[in-house]
Amino acid sequence: MQVYLDNAATTKMDKVVADIMQTYFIDKYANPSSIHQKGEEVYNDVEKAKDKVAKILNAKAQDLIFTGSASEANNFIIKGVVRANKDKGNHIIVSEIEHPCVLGPAKELVKEGFKVTYAPVDKKGRIKMSELKDMISEDTVLVSIMTANNEIGTIQNIKKIAKLVKKSGAYFHTDAVQAVPYLELDVKDLGVDFLTLSAHKFHGPKGVGMAYIDRSVKINPLISGGEQNYSLRAGTLDVAGIVGFSKALELAYKNREKKIEKIRELRDYFLEQVKKNIKDVHLNGHEKFRLENNLNLRFNGIEGEAILMDLFNQGICVSTGSACSAKNLRTSYVLQALKINSDYLNSNVRFSLSKNTTKAELDYTVKKLKETVARLRSFSPIK
After folding, report:
1. What range does the domain containing 267 cover?
2. Are residues 272 and 364 in the same domain?
3. Is residue 375 one of the residues assigned to a domain?
4. Cα separation of 42 and 32, whole Å?
5. Which residue numbers are catalytic?
């Protein structure tokens, strides 16, 4: 049996999304910036797609900028906002468990004279609110805290954080890439200035991200040299990708509660079966405030990479953490932030489900996982 439990890294594209995108590769291939009939037709389709996304996010269509990835969107927002608002200050705050595409641009800005402070989390991965409050100063320009962590699935109270940040006069950004469709992302209700999404995390195409930006805030473009996207991101629009993004997001929030309930039940069943069949297994992250599709488990006494490779040979795809650092075997900085015993920092495996996951797949995984753990622990030097 082939089992895919790495949906936090990427999801399988919905066929209906792929079929719609195909139209823009073969038939509606005109450049949306062209002023002839075919160009106008494609341009109108892009605008309709933006309107659909804006409605789901309770945003204005003109506040949406489609990018080549969430990584680009995060770089655009963090660098663009901070550079454009130097008159407000030179201080940035990011959480210590942010995705590398947030931590990276923050570190780059240090070279330009900006100061970066890293907001700590508790042992379950939630922001320490009192410490975050103390970090914010009159020089703070931007605070960036992810909605839900890609490794451990812990969900932050974004509405509460945004209120704290906005009260201080700073701008607030959240990387919400992992949140669809598990959380409602009403940008007005959340109180965010900026929000980032990525289509391939919710059964859409790879290579398409989105930046929600409050256009009342000054922001510099990351890619210049064209008037597309209100001159905020130069380059010919990826029509197929934008339409695919829009359709995938629409499908993600259709019958949302029913799909989430199914995934939650399967996740809880899987965790129950794992603990029933394997001793000394621990959940990383928060028990309650976590994504329904995410289980990051620690198998004390053995390396997570060893489990991953053994399961791979059994046809099961899992991960030990962020897909962006899968080939980097260094200890996860996210788990380090949780203050986990150093002996067990490399003992984790992430199982991430989707609407396509079945009970039969999970039963097969438990069976093979039980065999794998028993075999690896039999000769492990760590007890």
Report:
1. 3-11+256-369
2. yes
3. no
4. 5
5. 324
Q: What confidence tens digit (pLDDT) does each residue in 131-179 have? A: 999 999 999 999 999 999 999 999 999 999 999 999 999 999 999 999 9
**pLDDT for the residue 317:** 98
> Domains in the chain: how many in total?
2
- Last residue within a domain, chosen from 202, 221, 252: 252
**pTM of structure:** 0.94
pLDDT digits (tens, 9 = 90+) for 266-284: 999 999 999 999 999 999 9
378 belongs to a structural domain: no
Average pLDDT over residues 325-348: 82
CA dihedral 320, 143, 135, 161 (to 10 degrees): -80
pLDDT tens for residues 215-266? 999 999 999 998 899 999 999 999 999 999 999 999 999 999 999 999 999 9
Identify whether residues 141 and 209 lie together within a single domain.
Answer: yes
Residues 41-68: what's their mean pLDDT? 98
